[in-house]
Protein 1
Amino acid sequence: MIWLGSTFALTLLMGIPIAFVLGLSAFGYFLATDNLRFLVAVPQRMFAGQDSFILLAIPLFILAGSLMDVGGLTQRLVAFANALVGRFRGGLSLTAIWGSFLFGGVSGSAAADAAALGTVLSPDLKRQGYNEDYSAALIGVSSIMAPLVPPSIAMILYGALSGTSISRLFVAGIVPGVLLAFILSAYAVWIAGRKGYPKLEPVKLREIMRRLGECAPVLLLPVIIIGGIRGGVVTPTEAAAVAVVYALLVAGLWYKALSLSRLRRVFLSSALLSATIYLLIGFAHVLSLVFAIERLPQAVVSTLSAISENKWVILIMVNLILLVLGMFLDTVGILILTVPALMAIGNQLGLDPVHLGVIVVFNCLIGFVTPPVGLCLYVMAGVTKRPIERISIHALPMVGLAIAVLAIITIYPGLVLFLPNLLVN
């Protein structure tokens, strides 16, 4: 395992893409332990890791989100959020938070959320006198709500790896997402009061309803997905296909925003993103072969149990490990590498797999806004042309608030399991 860890650390520090870091680490292990015969199994492991009906939902949901995006939904969702919360102190910052929450119900991707809302809102925030680094950090941290709201690619992957109900995972992420939105909103209002950021003019009820009508087809997408799965009409993968057809109809016929050139860009960008995820899944499954050979999941469980038998101490250690991993790896890599060990720990502690899944995914999402990886912060640095270091400094208090939410949902599983138990059998 020393060779595995050394190769992993070296290739990661060299800036090699994480998918190839995983593959090279596995190859380094096989070479160092004279187990080159296992290289014959590499293509089979990569294919087996990707050959899952549930995983087909990932490229389909990516495509559905991209189709909705070209329909101008970002501007419509921002306008609706503005109408609801713009009248409060720091209204535009609240629009960023709740616009991110609404957009997450379509994209399921934190990076896409940050890029879309950052492009739309950053110029307005600057014009109204908001600190550019603060506003970039706020949008970046708010974007991690996207994978908590269905459809969530991270939840699909966790469900596929652990055998947990996708529909229950989808619903379970809603309350933590809302909780994070409210806590970030309270922080934004406090900052606005200190800095004297302006309110927006109140919007009349008739205008609010008009803006709601404009984005209603977009807001219906997660309802259709959850309703279809909950009613037993479709599987999660079939729900993703329905979402693609629905997105085509809404963007093409309702908003009349599709053209051949736009469709070409949408299909190309969706294919490239899906290929990246699938390559990562394939190489991660090769590395999981190494973990199986070394019996790493069992070793992790034994080590944690030897340190303490207290459930809460073990959960704190699990959270700390995941938070550290999130600083260096992306969500897909963390999930594939850790879920086998985490399921063993969860079974030992008697944790509900849905509760555990939300904890794990939430940890991974915090990694999107923690250096040195901090993908969403880098996205905002690219959008605003501001130094990543300054954005990171402003993001730190909000990351602390996200960790506080993580602690709450870890200690109180009822917050996570209430809606799944109410809505999903």
Protein 2
Amino acid sequence: MIRKLIFCAPLVLLSIANSAFAQKVTLDYFFNHEVHTVNGSVTRYHYLWTDKANTGFSIWGDIFKNRGATLDTLGNAPTLQNLKGSAIYIIVDPDTKKENPNPNFINEQDADQIAQWVKSGGVLVLMANDSANVELPHFNILTSHFGMHFNDDLQNHVIDDKHFTDGAVVIVNNPIFKTAKKVFLKDVCSISLTGNAKPALRATNGAVIAAIAHYGKGVVFAVGDPWFYNEYVNGRLPADYENDKAASDLAGWLLNQSLAKNSF
């Protein structure tokens, strides 16, 4: 009996440690707050952890959870106080007035609060879209803190499912995407870089479509598309596209960045 207890003790301690140090991944629900009407009821949709349809982030959320992280959401304007405890903060596709008649645009105060959080060790993920489907001018108030600017353009334009190759991105010797070799990024905006911001992915024409920047003790990853919503990680793509591996690669890299900074 004593031997059994001694054997189990390390497992119990490991479980407690994992629980105590689980990294929290917080998804913005404030700047992106799209709704639609289903059976007469107004409902949130698009880029939600809980949405298992093509429009949701449930698959990417499960990838984070399988790596030991916990998921959270932030439905208010970000501040140092309400970001406290979050290891990773993800902002996806801020609303235009077409998507939300009363959008919450990112302002200088929001940008300053987020930048201070990153500077203290936070890991920030910024996911835009093509300029017709995302509010870029205010989003760029935030990105300017990190030497990045989402451009009003359209890269990797894909007409339909018969033209998947137009969205292909080949990855070679990438420090973030170590297992994914070919991915799909459709209708992406490019990113201009200054300062210490560096390319993370390029389109076939050389345009930067994903980037990273170190800022104080923290780090920022930006990409010109929501990218990992369920529609493009659930196996609908041709077999040689590895968005599922890329989603896992990025999740692991982000969590490792956070762990190294002890931002949680």
